Amino acid sequence: MEGGAIAQFLPLILIFAIMYFLLIRPQQKKMKEHRAMVASLRRGDEIITQGGLIGKVSKVKEDGELEVEIATGVKVRVVQSTVAQVKSRTEPVAS
Length: 95
Fold this sequence. Notes:
Membrane topology: Single-pass membrane protein
Helix content: 40-55%
CATH topology of the largest domain: SH3 type barrels
Shape: rod-shaped
CATH architecture of the largest domain: Roll
Protein name: Sec translocon accessory complex subunit YajC
Subcellular location: Cell membrane
Order of helices and strands: HEEEEE
Keywords: Cell membrane, Membrane, Protein transport, Translocation, Transmembrane, Transmembrane helix, Transport
Pfam families: YajC
Number of helices: 1
């Protein structure tokens, strides 16, 4: 009887393992990469937000916000986590 109970749960365990490696694990990796990208944002980086705004970071604030210049003299506040992509990075100033 005990072997039959294990055989009944084996397909469920197999399905969960497949779901983990095909869906959950890649999504966690993608989220980790996004967090690292957002944490490395600097003044002067050109970014694209999830809303489609393209601009240059003019200030990185401590409370999870960015000040982004989307046109000459036009600055908007953007939540850091809504940055979808970094188009171009600025090189750090050599000391």
